[in-house]
Amino acid sequence: MLHNSIKSAEEAPTRRTFVAALTGAAALRTNVLAASAESAAKRKVYLVPNFHPASCGWLTTFSRERVYCANSYLNHLDRVRDDPHYEFVISEVNNIIAIMNFQPERIPELKERIRQARVEAVNGYFLESAINLSGGEALARLGVEGLRWYEQVFGVRPRFSWNIDVCGTHGQMPQIASELGFDALVYTRRNPTHKTLFWSVSPDGSRILTLCPGHYSELHPIFNTRVPLTDSQFAEIEKIIAAKEPFTPQNAPLLVLVGADDYALAPLYKNYPSEFLDQWPEKQPGRELTFSTLSKYLDAVLPGIHSGEIAIPTAEGGTSYDFDAFWIENPRVKTWYRSNEHLLQAAEALATMASLSGQFAYPVEPLHQAWILMCLNMDRNTIWGSAGGMVFEDPVSWDVQDRLAWIEHTASQVIADAGAALGSGSQSANLFNPLNWDRNDPVALHLPANTSLANTACEALPDGFTLCQPRLSGVAIQSVELTPVAPAAPKPRQLAGPIETGSYVVSLDPQTGSLKSLRLKKSGRELLGGPANVIVAERPLLERKHDDPGDHMPPRSGRQRLGTSDQHPASITAYEGPVAVTVKVEGAFFDGGGMRRTMRFYHDHPRIDFETELHNVPNYTVVVAEFPLADDILEVRRGVPFGFSHGAWSQPNPELHGWTKGIVPAVRWTHYSLRGGGSFALLDRGLTGRELDARTPLLYLMNAEDKYWGYPNSWLSGRGSHLFQYALIAQAEDWPAARVPQCAWEYNSVPSVVQGQSSGSALETSPNVIVEAMRREGDHVELRLLECYGASGIATIELRLPHQRATITDFTGRVKTVLPHSARYSIPVRPQQIVTLQFETAAKLSVPEPIKAWDPFVPPAKLAALHDYDPSLIGHPPFGTEPPPPG
What we know:
Elements: H1 24-40, E1 45-49, H2 62-82, E2 88-90, H3 93-102, H4 107-115, E3 119-121, H5 136-153, E4 160-162, H6 173-179, E5 184-186, E6 197-201, E7 207-211, H7 220-224, H8 231-242, E8 254-258, H9 274-283, E9 289-291, H10 294-307, E10 314-316, H11 331-357, H12 364-376, H13 380-384, H14 400-421, E11 428-433, E12 443-445, E13 452-453, E14 458-460, E15 466-468, E16 476-483, E17 491-493, E18 499-500, E19 504-508, E20 515-520, E21 534-540, E22 559-564, E23 571-576, E24 580-588, E25 594-602, E26 607-615, E27 621-626, E28 633-640, E29 643-648, E30 664-665, E31 669-674, E32 679-684, E33 689-693, E34 696-704, E35 707-708, E36 711-712, E37 721-731, H15 740-748, E38 752-754, E39 763-765, E40 769-777, E41 780-787, E42 793-799, E43 806-809, E44 816-819, E45 825-829, E46 834-840, H16 863-866
Parallel strand pairs: 1-8, 1-9, 2-3, 4-5, 5-7, 6-10
Antiparallel strand pairs: 6-7, 11-16, 11-38, 12-15, 13-16, 14-15, 17-23, 18-19, 19-20, 21-22, 21-27, 23-24, 24-25, 25-26, 26-37, 27-34, 28-29, 28-31, 30-33, 31-32, 32-37, 33-34, 35-36, 39-42, 40-41, 41-46, 42-45, 43-44, 43-46
Helix pairs in contact: 2-3, 5-12, 11-12, 11-14, 12-14
């Protein structure tokens, strides 16, 4: 969807390790002998056409986007029919569903072309996602659901992790792609190796062949011309192709992903590509070109790679990032998505318990449908938050808000129904903890009016919730007796001195409300190097390249400081209750906007919670929260889907391959190891942007833009009120004793209040793993867990639900290793290894039906737009104007 900001293969690697992957002396001799001939010969080139849209909308509504996509793909299919030399790759289930809905008579033709290998379903995922912003299980389901759909509906199994539009690749992608059974990982930006073919390796040692050929849509003249190309144009095409020779490993043919940029159509000149291919040998002799699918290229290089004739490097760790506005804007979509992820995790786990322990039918279809809608909301522009406002809210077209609300309602209903099926406990608060460890972190619960938890400190919150710290067992419903006493209201408190808790002593600036000091209780060590939780407004130093820069944002060094929360005196009030001291700070902010900050310091827990509410942030303003530290940061760990990136900061360390520079995406948390020992961590509920400025971690709150490429977007705008939630944990213990991943999951996963009675723990594990999913599928319970500390060890798992044999498998259940039957299983795990376990059950569930139309999920008032078909909508949607109403 976006132009490449670098010439991918030419970018120099930074802080990476590469190992030449030669296979024996024979391979070395072959390469040496071939080197001189290779420099003179022109290698064969595989041209792979692809149509690259925003599947769920970018500059138009979802309803119209699917029309553009269906018509454009059929344009390519027409050329396959009309030209025997044309082939292309098709991506994203949603686009095929659009063809099914608008021109179902073309589906048999599409299936036949796929059978003939002239069209390839290239992408194993349900659609092309951002890969950096969801949790790990959502990314796994994206692949599982995509592969399942293609196998059920088309009888094919795509071979590729097709991620050509991602703006940076994290280090767990090789393992995720391998677990899905893909043959290769494909991306086009931030190539770390200088070569178009290489091995990518995850922390657990998983590796996968990686193709990184350059931009995803090159050689535009072939597709844009309406007349035969001139001699000079043929020469220019050869020049572009020849420039790829040095970056393609010796003895390998060249690969070019071709098209007329985003939303590319088949060549406009009807006689291409056959006429072009007929002319090519005369215009540019010595170079063979073929229009191809990607599998044909892969099959051409695999024998040479396996034999060692084609030697390729190895890259450990992830890549750098670009299009950095994507990680820091539209927190509304990111936080809602994160909330739904955790709701679905809880719903599947509780439904599994209830269906195997009580009179409850596991809701196969609703949960499957919820995951499919989660897949749709992983569309790149959707989860980036970068699109016209009609994508997120629209009065006549199905939108992101509709899908988010549908998932939230469905998951909440499953939790309620499954809990009720486990019995009733009217005299108790029955709390379901979906996490696989015992917890007593502070949580806000919605309890019956004028009741409290017995033998538990409870505190009333202004919104009617109750703040408390119940002790809860892992993966269990805990019945806690209710007492007919309203939770205590916090009382006003003076702030003449510091606030002292069991973990730290904190002081606030009496004028601004910023954190002035944070000392660890036991050692007295000061962690802050200046005022913290200071809210800062910034703007790029350079003038905007266009009116709506919702894609790019320079790092802090390229921005000017516009204003801070410390520039204005604030009204500060404090309250103390049985659970916490709460401080509220109200005052002005940049350009007349208002601000309210709430900080909560818990008596018996090290976490500090923040809520920052901003009002009317001006257009083209970036807002961050600063946390300057008193000590150098040696290492940075940053949550990614299924694990973390681990890199060096103030002191280089070539053994650490994680990327740490600039604005980076984070999933739930970042952790900073300090030179003097101890750690500092920032937790979030969907505020995904992070950056380091020397000793100062920055947490991005928003990138306010009133419009995106000319289209108003209220979700992206700073107008109105915006609430941001985040937290910090400062501890004397460093990794892994600080348990930062677990703390981040606790912060995001509030226990559910259900009607069921105490169930006992359904699952017990060792502390070195986090279970991201427990669900039922077919004839088994599926557990997906992650080694969470980055260290080899033994994981123990005890599933206390009825089951027979247990197997270790991959994400799709195709590779299985049967475990010796045991009450408790002990499994060796590698650093950050993802493990999928299946526990056989006596009863078998139905297989969910593949979704072929969106009608069941669309509000009735929006069905007309969903079916409004206009055959003239083809190619790229227009920039900068609101789409016309349907019809």
